[in-house]
Amino acid sequence: MKRLIAASLTLLLGSSLAGAEYPAPSKPTPESRSSLDGPPKPGSGDQPSQRSVGASQATPAPKAWWDDRTSGLIGGIGGSIMGCVGGLIGTLAGLGRARRLTLGLAWASIVFGLACLVAGVVAISLSQPFAVWYPLLLGGGISAGVMGSLLHTLRRRYAEIELRRMAAMDVQTGPN
User: Quick one: DSSP state of residue 14?
Assistant: First the structure.
């Protein structure tokens, strides 16, 4: 079985990657770091990454609104909530129930998506990192785009259901 897997990997990845074992990466030494960062400036000690910069040259970097981990949580939790809201809207509309709730949730999703899009554009304009603006633009674009395109369909679905109910009432009462 190992040979079959190795042969498959050889075909897919090439011979150099199929059975190669790579040594564990070694911990960088101060000498290797200093060669990557360049020579240390006077007064900076043995940490070359902490360089002194004159006040006239320094431009303060904007503080990120949140870090990478929080970005993942925002995307995961926010996406799950929006998926559940979308599922609820689809189920209720398919059953023809709770028209006001369904259309209200759809409109709230559109407004929320547009607000996220605006916040994402503001984050880009303030030079926020990728972990800040990406979940805002992605979630906002999906939420506003999907719900915005389905709003007409939802309205039409509820109108069809209402027409069926009226036709059923006409059949029950019979001709006058």
Answer: -
The DSSP 8-state label assigned to residue 67 in this structure reads: -
Provide the Cα torsion 142, 148, 153, 157; round to 10°: 100
157 vs 49, higher pLDDT? 157
How confident is the model over 143-170, as pLDDT tens digits?
999 999 999 999 999 999 999 989 988 8
User: Is residue 160 assigned to a domain?
Assistant: yes
How does 131-150 read in b/e, with b if 16+ C-beta sit within 10 Å?
bbbbbbbbbbebbbebbeeb
Whether 17 shows a pLDDT value over 50: the answer reads: no
Alpha-carbon dihedral sign for residues 154, 156, 157, 158: positive
Are 106 and 156 within 8 A, CB to CB? Answer: no
Residue 148 included in any domain? yes
**Structural domain for 157, as ranges:** 101-176
**Mean pLDDT calculated for residue range 50-63:** 56
Counted domains in the chain: 1
Do the domain assignments include residue 151? yes
- Say which residues have a Cβ less than 8 Å from residue 15's Cβ, sequence separation at least 6: none
pLDDT band at 58 (very low <50, low <70, confident <90, very high): low
Examine residue 118 and state whether it is found in any structural domain, yes or no.
Answer: yes
Category of 64 on φ-ψ map: left (φ > 0), alpha (ψ -120 to 50) or beta: beta
